[in-house]
Amino acid sequence: MSDVGPEGVDLSSVDASGFTSNLLGQRPDQGGPSTVNELSIAVLTIVGDTAKLRLFPVK
Predict the structure, then answer these.
(1) Ordered DSSP codes for the chain
(2) Distance CA 18, CA 33 (A)
(3) What is the pTM of this model?
(4) Where does residue 38 fall: left (phi above 0), alpha (psi -120 to 50 degrees), or beta otherwise?
(5) C-alpha distances in angstroms, 9 versus 15, 18, 23, 37, 43?
(6) In this structure, is the dihedral angle defined by the CA atoms of residues 15, 21, 22 and 28, taken in order, positive or negative?
(7) Beta bridge partners of 26
(8) % of the chain with per-residue pLDDT over 90
(9) Contact 57, 41 (CB under 8 A)
(10) How distant, in Å, are the alpha carbons of 16, 22, 38, 43 from that of 30?
(11) What angle do CA 47, 2, 32 make, to 5 degrees?
């Protein structure tokens, strides 16, 4: 996780080849999880500078 704040959660992912993906401003109310490298990431809550995430495999 890169950053957590009132605007959302910024996440970065690097795959085995070195390719970097960035998910910026992820929020609980965005309409569903984001997906990176066969992993779904849902932001459940943001309180101050702490975020609760749910990580699960893509179905």
Answers:
(1) --EEETTEEEEEEE-TT--EEEEEEE-TTSSS-EEETTEEEEEEEEETTEEEEEEEE--
(2) 23
(3) 0.83
(4) left
(5) 20, 22, 8, 18, 8
(6) negative
(7) 9
(8) 78
(9) no
(10) 28, 16, 19, 9
(11) 60
